[in-house]
Amino acid sequence: MSTASVASSARAPITHDSLPAWGPWAVVGGVLLAAVALGSATEVALGVLLLLGVVLSVGVVYVWSRAVEGSRRAKDRSVTIAVTASFLLAIAPLVSVLYTVLSRGLARFDAPFFTETARNVVGEGGGASHAIVGTLVITGVATLASVPIGIMAAIYLHEYGSGRLKKALTFFVDVMTGIPSIVAGLFAVALFVLFFGPGIRLGVMGAVALSVLMIPIVVRSTEEMLKIVPDGLREASYALGVPKWRTIVKVVLPTALAGIITGVMVAVARVIGETAPLLITTGVFSSMNSNPFDGRMSNLPVFAFNQYKFPGAIPEPYIDRAWAAALTLIVIVMTLSLAARLIYRRFGTDIR
Amino acid sequence: MASSSSDAAGAGRPGGSFRRPGDRVFSGLATGAGVTILALLAGVAIFLMIEAWPAITAPAEDIPGGEGLWHLIAPLAFGTVLGSLIAILLAVPMAIGVSLYITHFAPRRLSQTLGYIIDLLAAVPSIVYGLWGIAVLGPAAVGMHRWLAGNLGFIPFFEGPASATGRTMLVVGVVLGVMILPIITAVTREVFSQTPRAQIEAALALGATRWEMIRMTVLPFGKSAVIGGSMLGLGRALGETMAVTIILSVSGAVTLNLISSGNPSTIAANIALNFPESSGLAVNALIASGLALFAITLVVNMAARAVIYRSEQALR
Amino acid sequence: MSSAKSVEVSDLDLYYGSFHAVQNVNMTIQPNKVTALIGSSGCGKSTFLRSLNRMHELVHGARVEGSVILEGQDIYAPDVDPVAVRSQVGMVFQQPNPFPTMSIYENVAAGLRLNSRRMKKPAMDEIVERSLRGANLWEEVKNRLERAGSGLSGGQQQRLCIARAIAVEPEVLLMDEPCSALDPVATLAIEELIRELKVNYTIVIVTHNMQQASRASDITGFFNLEESGKPGRLVEIDETETIFSNPANKATEDYVTGRFG
Fold first, then answer.
1. CB under 8 Å to B181, separation ≥6 — which residues?
2. pLDDT at site C221
């Protein structure tokens, strides 16, 4: 019995020495400052030094804490630092991307960029108005096609569906969210080539490709919103003798509307920056074309790609236009994401 | 939750024998939309198959490169898997750390906002990541490439010679890792935050530190979610096109060397680079490679979803 | 083995943010006795219980004022490590909560592994068996120690949780309505166990059930709210027999005779 007595012999007192509250953070701060200092003196990239600095401070804190507080506390402290560092490390690229796009994109983020096209532009000047119009038209067509199908499919899943069709649809909608965008583009190509022959490039082909990417996002978000409409609302409506379809149209959908709009905006934000599928479906075009059924059509992501990939003899103006297009895209995407969130906050909370 | 509403309505129409015309039309439309989506997915497979078929059946010497479809696709598949594996190796531990930070370390009133910030990483278009990779990350990584080649050159991955532009598989892997991080995090964060309060309190009441509590409850509870989320991220990395197309300096070589300027391309990047200029059988060959990519990502995604569903079921 | 200790609570006030949940509690919890805390729901007795092993502060915004002295040491003193407090004041919860991913054996060993990582297998086996015997569960599970703890019945799961708590030999064992999720047969088994456990431990049990308090406890404390929105207070604490037969306070009498709450 006595051999196995854990606690009474080795019982730790409830108080013990501990590191001062500022201790671990002082270590991290000191090591990182040293890394910055070293970074300015050597050619090794600052990022690498900071990373090594984090690893080093985890080590130092572990050893210090272990000596003072024991290994359990030491491990807890090391993990806390490592986990916090991983979060900061994860947002570092976001900060860097936003800073880069802003600082480089502003050079050509001017009026001509939004009013002129790239037609007959060699070297400086020109704009991307044709690409912006193209992006709006292509994404608009894709949205018009995806939203009704997506919402109706979500209604099927949540209000009507049962059995194997429901299970299969739920599963494959989730699987569809993982289709590579380039594959969606190839699908549009394969579909249109079959009817119009090889070499076909149309704005609407891009819209078809984007729809394949958009539909599953709309279905999933709409279904989530339908789920949080209280059943009591539906039952109250049935109790009044309102048929099920009218209940859905008049009660369920309006209640979930803010959430559904949010979901659609998120879906639009997700596909509006897609480049790969448009590169192979809409082709490259430097003039204005707002008819998705008539030939090649430019759009912002492909415009950015081509300006960057195929600059002229003096590359700077092309690269500046590429960054301005990237900045325009980021502004559109971030605005959509933020607006979606605000709409949901403002109008969507009362159905929780 | 999900089924209760349809049950409530179903009670009003025993056996579904009588339904109003309006109901019949509306439910028909809804079912039709669902079937359309399944048909669309099948259509993707079928149309790719039709257009890939000429390349699959063509004699080897007619395929670009002259050695047949397999020799065209295999090095690309190698590059695709290599880049994605780097991304996964970097992103999975990061995603676990970030999810733990958001769910169990950060002040609780901040956690929603922090999660939103991570989600913004997913909102950045891939073309922007590509431009950032070639203009910022690549050049910044040149010094490290040189250091790796100089000091760890005996490891095949860092054999060198170090690229002078940073347009390497390593940088591509890092950018892909950044891109899939929010996808993995979205899954793991959700499940970590659902760890039952009773489990957490049981561990803490036994005298566990926060980290010990996480090891006893949160991590075992979220294990399947981590696996499923990682596979979703893998699927995304395999199919990512533009970042690779822009950043990677391609020679077509099949090599494990991650830091030189001679890299294998990936299936997706190869399509994006060559499709606009291709015609005839070359187009069919590219579509065939796309079909292969579709098949690979489909399998990965289906497996990922199956794992996630099973873990969700186990939680109930 | 006997490591039971008394707990001295003085001027204890508990808050959730700006909400004052429990006001000015003073009591001495005696060693090797079962102290029952009774009172209507929302009167702060569970909150008070959770302040005895520093679980109260896990709730966002929770605050504590006053002192809880365990073995001459205030557990709310600034240099005290709450983790160390919790390993000396065990807790059993309302809902049985064995770790679902662990076997029966691993569940009992979970707390031990935290403190003494390098314990040899035979020594560990011995403590697991002793703890399961102590929780009156050994005979029922000895042949399936490797099975999942979640496969047991509710009553067995709760006894597994008790075994898990006593395996680390705490000085005090807190029980937060341990029988409220159990059927009457399982409840009686737990009550019998509580009476046996007091030989080695100081036990504090929160219960809704007055029969349970009268059957299983030596001391009973009655918590009450003057009115809703006001903080809960300890109205009276005394020998269980006195509380149920001849309480000093009118509110206590009303409560134990069922005229109230």
1. A90, B91, B94, B95, B98, B118, B121, B233
2. 93
Q: A114-351 sits in which CATH class?
A: mainly alpha
CA distances from C89 to A22, B98, C13 (A): 29, 33, 20
Write out pLDDT tens, residues C5-36.
889 999 999 999 889 999 999 999 999 999 99
Q: Which tokens is C231 given? A: 């903080």
User: A108 and A320 in contact (C-beta within 8 Å)?
Assistant: yes
Give yes or no for residue B71 having a pLDDT over 60: yes
Nearest to B290 among A186, A273, A274 (CB): A186
- How is chain B split into domains, by residue range? 58-315
Phi-psi region of A311 (alpha: psi -120 to 50; beta: other; left: phi over 0): beta
How many whole angstroms separate alpha carbon B285 and alpha carbon B86? 27
Q: What are the residue ranges spanned by the domains of chain A?
A: 19-108, 114-351
pLDDT digits (tens, 9 = 90+) for B191-239: 899 899 999 999 999 999 999 999 999 999 898 889 989 998 999 999 9
**Taking CA atoms, what residue in B is nearest to C89?**
B205
CB within 8 Å of chain A, chain B residues 41-100: 41, 43-44, 47-48, 50-51, 93-94, 97-98, 100
Instruction: Please answer whether residues B167 and B261 qualify as being in contact, where contact means their C-beta atoms are separated by less than 8 angstroms.
Output: yes
Q: What's A254's DSSP letter?
A: H
Non-local CB neighbours of A256 within 8 Å, separated by 6+ positions? A222, A225, A226, A228, A229, A351
CA distances (Å), origin C175, targets A7, C45, C180:
21, 11, 11
How buried is residue A121: exposed, middle or buried, by Cβ count under 10 Å (0-12/13-18/19+)? middle
Q: Which residue has the higher pLDDT, B52 or A48?
A: B52
Rg (CA), chain B: 24
pLDDT band at A50 (very low <50, low <70, confident <90, very high): confident
B83 touches B172 (CB < 8 A): yes
Distance from CA of C151 to the nearest CA of B (A): 14
* Of the candidates A333, A281, A289, A323, the residue with the CA atom closest to the CA atom of residue A303: A323
Q: How many other CB atoms are found less than 10 A from the CB of residue A41? A: 7
Contact A219, A154 (CB under 8 A): yes
Q: Is C243 on the interface with A (CB under 8 A)?
A: no
CA separation for the pair A330, C145 (Å, rounded): 58
A positions 45-84 inside 8 Å of C (CB): 72-73
DSSP state of B59: -
Full DSSP string of A135-154: HHHHHHHHHHHHHHHHHHHH
State the complex-level ipTM: 0.89
Domains and CATH numbers, chain C: 7-101+171-256 (3.40.50.300)
Tokens representing residue B42 in the block: 């099948």
Phi-psi region of B164 (alpha: psi -120 to 50; beta: other; left: phi over 0): alpha
CB atoms within 10 A of CB C35: 25
The Cα–Cα gap between A27 and A50 comes to 13
d(CA C5, CA C32): 8
Q: What angle is formed at CA B33 by the lines to CA B30 and CA B39, rounded to 5 degrees? A: 145
Interface contact C97-B201, CB threshold 8 A? yes
> Do the Cβ atoms of A238 and B8 come closer than 8 Å?
yes
- Please check whether the domain covering B58-315 is classified as CATH 3.30.70.100: no
Q: Which of C197, C125, C185, C126 is nearest to C161 (CA)?
A: C197
Q: How far apart are CA C208 and CA C39, in angstroms?
A: 7
